[in-house]
Amino acid sequence: xxxxxxxxxxxxxxxxxxxxxxxxxxxxxxxxEVTVVTGGxxxxxxxxxxxxxxxxxPVRTQGxxxxxxxxxxxxxxxxxxxxxxxxxxLDTFEAVRPDVVLTELFPFGRRTLSTxxxxxxxxxxxxxxxxxxxxxxxxxxxxxxxxxxxxEAHERVRAYYDAVLVHGDAAVVTLERSWPVDDxxxxxxxxxxxxxxxxxxxxxxxxxxxxxxxxxSSSGGIRLYRTAxxxxxxxxxxxxxxxxxxxxxxxxxxxxxxxAPAHMRVERARADFRTLLAGCAVSVSQLGYNTAVDLLRxxxxxxxxxxxxxxxxxxxxxxxxxxxxxxxxxxIVERELSPESLAAAVRRALxxxxxxxxxxxxxxxxxxxxxxxxxxxxxxx
Length: 381
Hints:
Layout: E1 3-8, H1 15-29, E2 33-38, E3 52-55, H2 79-96, E4 100-104, H3 114-126, E5 132-138, H4 147-160, E6 163-167, H5 183-186, E7 189-191, E8 211-214, H6 222-234, E9 240-244, H7 250-259, E10 264-268, H8 273-279, E11 282-285, H9 289-298, E12 301-304, H10 315-325, E13 330-331, H11 339-351, H12 364-380
Helix pairs in contact: 1-12, 2-3, 6-11, 8-9
């Protein structure tokens, strides 16, 4: 048994937490002792028997401004809270004495938290024996806005990391499509397949909705929700359901629900999301990472309306482009999203035959564990 330390800070949605949670469960199933250090807003996602969770003084962002960190009250985070975070992180490292350190997203993201991550990496390398250090990243990254940021990330990978776990499948998309991979880091990239942290669909406990609309856990889905309400009026012969994430505040949620027509149900995101997907005729989503895995598991007809933040975010659009090219659904780009375009896409999807996706690796969590265990064996030899 090895001791594994997973470090993750979610700043907006819950996608990073979902992957980190799935990895924690996989390491625990394999008999390892796991501690998770989480630096975002507190959540019950870590209620896992046998898992140790350490909560850093939390930080978050407002909207998609990832440069400015805020505390629980919305005040700008100052040096005192930052120092408290890295002190607790290093204290946890010393207490756990991990054999493996896994940083979620860093050094390919979370640059605003680089001080605490770099302090952890220095500590991991100063230990004898040195801890195995791996980075955990999704299939598609936000490309660096400046070339020097990629150079900096690659230098940190070469200096500190034994492997970069890329949680995707090359049959869908390679990391090079979103990140300038060079020969200096190519040798440590390890494709794992997609990390599936979801539950298996169960029998429907209520009548299925024909069209299920989802927008992830953040507030980034608000435009899609509003558009879907208007689109539902143009498709009145089908039952609609909108699932709204916790990142949408209650007044906005109530406004969307009040505007919905009688044949549309508006509710908060549910734990049985996969069951609803498996029973629906058409899924309408933005295609974040975890929703993509949900769709690969449940295989409904699909319409993708990726969140792009007026061109500032590229991850979901690139994934939607790839899924569309593979015949798994139809994409509506953000600038063309309207009630009319969404209603028309839903009508086309309803008329289309169901297509099974080509075989895609969805065992990314277990494969990640196997890769890390091999690194540990190599070190012991």
